[in-house]
Amino acid sequence: MTWNDEVDPSALALRLNDARRERRAVAPLTSGLPGLAVPDAYTVQEEGIRLRQADGERVVGLKMGLTSEAKRRQMNLDSPVYGVLTDRMRVAAGGVIALGQAIHPKIEPEIAFRTSRELRGQVTRDEVLDACASVFVAMEILDSRYRDFKYFSLPDVVADNASSSLFVLGEVEHPPRAMDLTKLEMRMSVNGALAQSARSDAISGDPVVSVIQLCELLARRGQVLPAGSIVLAGAATVAHMLQPGDRVRLDVEGLGSVEVSAA
Ligand code: OOG
């Protein structure tokens, strides 16, 4: 589609950024702009990140979304997307999430990587493992800026930074070749009761494949995965809607655990 003064990417990014800052849900962009395509939506996402950088936030990594069949079915969407993580989105392990700062937050069980070398374009599984210094347990807090957490197409979720809100990382980092990353049992409990569980191959068949896909998606935008990035590989299960008082814990076989509370 062609941008014009009425629907330029910065105006759309500003609309979503204001919604986030004011905790006010808005209509999906495609309800007014049915022609919005995925590449346009990434332009909106990039503009949105520029607004956050202008506000002093620093990019620390990327997140993959819709990498598991469970999530794709739940959201009725068919392909993986990425979003950007900033320093201000990080919650300390064991920390507290203030639900009043969000619109309708949900939490998901994840596996994360930290890169020590740049990755670009088409990469192999071995190249990803060589470029990742560590792998660890993580949870992502999603918070769509769209009304009722409802959007209807990939461009909507891409423009909204793949619904990302906050993330929490486990404190113990492991070498990525120390275990079979496709066979780890993941159990997320809320207030001591099991809420979601899956094996790590629910994430793209292999969480490393999420990183390969991320590099491909970035290459389409002429971008690379920088050294020193945190990468959230995508949720293994559907998300849990957070309620005040929730204490959420994720245990991943071989990787340890991480906890966060909601107030
Ligand atoms: C989209 C983001 C999904 C994941 O890990 O699958 C996601 C959404 O559910 O709104 O981050």
Automatic annotation (TrEMBL):
One of its GO terms (molecular function) is 2-oxopent-4-enoate hydratase activity. Gene3D superfamilies: Fumarylacetoacetase-like, C-terminal domain. Residues 74-259 form the Fumarylacetoacetase-like C-terminal domain. This is 4-oxalocrotonate decarboxylase. Keywords: Lyase. PANTHER family: 2-KETO-4-PENTENOATE HYDRATASE, ACID HYDRATASE. InterPro entries: Fumarylacetoacetase-like_C (IPR011234), Fumarylacetoacetase_C_sf (IPR036663), Hydratase-Decarb/MhpD_sf (IPR050772). The keyword Lyase applies. One of its GO terms (cellular component) is cytoplasm. It holds the Pfam family FAA_hydrolase. It comes from the Bacteria. It comes from Myxococcus stipitatus (strain DSM 14675 / JCM 12634 / Mx s8).
